[in-house]
Amino acid sequence: MTSARRRQTVDRARAAARVAAVRAARARPRLARGLTLLEVILAIAILGGCLAVIGELARMGVRHAEEARELTMAQLLCEGKLEEIAAGATPAESASAVPFESEPDWTYTIEVGSLEEPGLIQVRVTVQPLVAERLHPNVFTLTRWMLDPSVASAPSASNSLSGSTTEGQATTPGGGNDASN
Questions:
Q1: What DSSP line would sit under the chain, residue for residue?
Q2: What is the pLDDT of residues 51-103, one digit of tens each?
Q3: If both were cysteines, with which of 53, 86, 119, 126 could 141 make a disulfide (CB 3.0 to 4.6 Å apart)?
Q4: CA gap 11, 1 in Å, rounded
């Protein structure tokens, strides 16, 4: 009989534990399935910050694309003007802030200087926008050594034009310089 009593006692204890567990489960508040207001506000704040950063990156990309387009235009205009001077279509004389006929929004400056080598001159052409829309506008400069037109009229001197050198410099809004040959 002792073993039967023990079983009954164990069974009653188990039943009491089950009943207590069921009562405790009913007494606890159920967790809500959803988001709290704090979680929603935090998610919106993170989304807003991400959108602000992406918007700034897009704006910077557009600005840099415009600067690259302007610098390319300045380089093409500068090379064209330097080739006009080398071909004799434009005189190799100093000039300052002269607007281009084809692009009136751009100006060029020509600086002519002598070199230590007789018969050679240094021609520097600088191109920049007529109206600077930025604090640091795009400026492009090319320097070329060529035969002095006053000396180049001799037939033997015109054959040595292929020995000229060209050096370029672009000033970007960051203040850095890029040189190209």
A1: -HHHHHHHHHHHHHHHHHHHHHHHHHHSPPPPSS--HHHHHHHHHHHHHHHHHHHHHHHHHHHHHHHHHHHHHHHHHHHHHHHHHHHTSS-S--EEEEEPSS-TTEEEEEEEEE-SSTTEEEEEEEEEESS--SSS--EEEEEEEEE-TTTTTSTTTGGGGGG--EEEEEE-TTS-EEEE-
A2: 999 999 999 999 999 999 999 999 999 999 999 998 888 888 889 889 999 88
A3: 126
A4: 15
The rounded radius of gyration (Å) of the Cα atoms in the chain is 40
pTM: 0.60
CA atoms lying within 13 Å on the CB side of residue 166: 16
How many angstroms separate the CA atoms of 67 and 137, rounded?
9
> 146 burial class (0-12, 13-18, 19+ CB within 10 angstroms)?
buried
Cβ partners under 8 Å of residue 45, min gap 6: none
Task: Give the span between the Cα atoms of 3 and 67, in whole angstroms.
Answer: 95
CA 173 – CA 68 distance, rounded (Å): 11
